[in-house]
Design a protein that fits this description.
The protein is an all-alpha fold. 84% of the residues lie in helices and 0% in strands. The two termini are 22 Å apart. Residues 1-9 have low confidence and may be disordered.
Length: 468
């Protein structure tokens, strides 16, 4: 059993740490992972639930529900692409802040935070303008039909109007987690998700705004959450302060943020690209109903994928801080604990999905085609969720220790190198079943590579910090 004081940490190092930092440096690892991850998991689970509830409400709009659901699904890649840039900045900043805190470089951490804020504002304005001009051609290129284009355009255009609030609520929240304030990070997500769930039916049905109501409720929620997050920085509550002198962009700092943030960025971009490819194949093989089925499936799977990310992100400041301090034993223990928790969550999700696919699909639509297509696809895609959770957790681990290239490789491996070719090959032999089987096959192949890489890295960390 692990003692409360780690023998690998010298007394002089401990003396200079704040109580929160001492906790990350000395507390029992499995319990520490849970204490940091549970708030994040709850927040991300509720956020994922919002996506599901949002699609349920949209799919139940009288007379237009199926077309509206398909339109929202076709618009999803654009939202994913835009969110990818916020993740690049936020996650990259959080990891850099954790590592610098571990090295006792608070000034460097504050420069990261200042540049994070500048990038958040600049990227939201520039990308928002570009997205508005390119929106309709992109939606048509992604497969929007005459029936679904109006809903996809309305939904996405309104969300772009509020992109600056979306970026603040996404990017500026992650550094709070990187400082070790997991509960504050999760509170922002939880508050936003619950507010969104409450506003959704009000705007869609009570105000009779339809798809536009779903989008405006999201914009309003992000505005309120952005105010909540910036209040944290205005009060100077964290050990790393947001100072005016640090908002001037510095190339070295931006490159440090991007070098780590590139992994979740590519994961999100590839996820968007994969979604586009899958939608285009599904339109050819099963029409708009197949697109609606995939939209529902991905919403349900996200209910279990987001908690997996929550576990990984909850462990990130602990791993990054101890890696910065040179405590390899705690780094390895933290990774193994987080990977175990992530796989358990995914396994529970897979069992539930495989057991009740038709019931779950029935919450989204009563359309027979969507139900029948979606139930089959959902059951097939759920089988390998645990190995996918292992792979995603490993990618986040490499981000936490600053191994950006390996994190990028693992992110690209599953969705780019393996999954995309399968989407083009399998439907030629299996029809629509090829789309459903592509993801499990990609998961298994990526798992084999990831297992080899992570075991090698853990051995290297043990040797590297053996005498620290």
């Amino acid at each position: 059993m692990e003692s409360t004081t780690d023998e690998n940490i010298k007394d002089d190092k401990l003396a200079s740490l704040s109580p929160r930092e001492k906790e990350m440096a000395t507390a029992n690892i499995p319990k520490l992972i849970l204490s940091y991850s549970i708030p994040t998991v709850i927040g991300m689970l509720v956020a994922a639930l919002y996506v599901v509830v949002d699609r349920i409400f949209v799919g139940r709009i009288p007379y237009i529900g199926n077309d509206a659901l398909n339109g929202v699904g076709l618009a999803a890649p654009i939202s994913l692409i835009l969110a990818a840039f916020a993740l690049l900045v936020g996650v990259g900043s959080a990891a850099n802040i954790s590592i610098r805190m571990g090295r006792r470089d608070i000034e460097g951490a504050e420069k990261v935070l200042g540049n994070c804020f500048t990038l958040t504002i600049v990227l939201s304005i520039v990308l928002g303008i570009v997205a508005l001009f390119a929106l309709e051609p992109l939606l048509i290129a992604f497969g929007a039909s005459e029936a679904t284009l109006p809903f996809a355009d309305t939904y996405t255009r309104i969300k772009i109007y509020g992109i600056i609030f979306t970026y603040i609520s996404l990017a500026m929240n992650h550094p709070i987690r990187g400082m070790g304030f997991a509960k504050r990070f999760a509170a922002a997500q939880l508050f936003g998700a619950l507010l969104n769930i409450a506003l959704n039916p009000l705007f869609i049905f009570t105000f009779n705004m339809g798809v536009a109501g779903a989008a405006w409720s999201t914009v309003l929620t992000h505005f309120i959450v952005a105010v909540y997050i910036m209040a944290f920085y205005a009060k100077g509550n964290g050990p790393v302060k947001l100072r005016l002198k640090n908002i001037k962009p510095e190339t070295k700092v931006i490159l440090a943020i991007a070098s780590i943030g590139i992994a979740p960025f590519l994961m999100q971009i590839l996820g968007s690209g994969v979604n586009i490819i899958a939608n285009r194949h599904l339109i050819q093989l099963g029409g708009d109903a197949a697109v609606g089925a995939l939209t529902a499936i991905m919403g349900v799977i996200s209910l279990f994928v987001m908690p997996v990310f929550g576990i990984a992100q909850g462990s990130q400041p602990i791993i990054g801080f101890n890696y910065g301090m040179g405590n390899g034993d705690r780094v390895r223990k933290a990774y193994l604990s987080s990977a175990t928790y992530a796989v358990i969550i995914a396994f529970v999700g897979a069992v539930l999905i495989v057991a009740f696919p038709t019931f779950i699909m029935g919450m989204f639509s009563s359309d027979y085609d969507i139900l029948s297509i979606g139930a089959v696809g959902m059951r097939i895609m759920a089988w390998t969720m645990p190995v996918a959770a292992f792979q995603m957790n490993a990618s986040t681990f490499f981000m936490a220790i600053g191994r950006a290239k390996m994190s990028v490789l693992l992110s690209v491996l599953r969705q780019g190198i393996i999954l995309v070719p399968l989407y083009f090959i399998l439907p030629n032999f299996m029809g629509i079943l090829g789309i459903w089987w592509a993801m499990p096959m990609a998961d298994l192949a990526a798992f084999a590579v990831t297992l080899f890489v992570i075991l090698r890295e853990l051995r290297m960390i043990k040797r590297r910090f053996a005498n620290v």
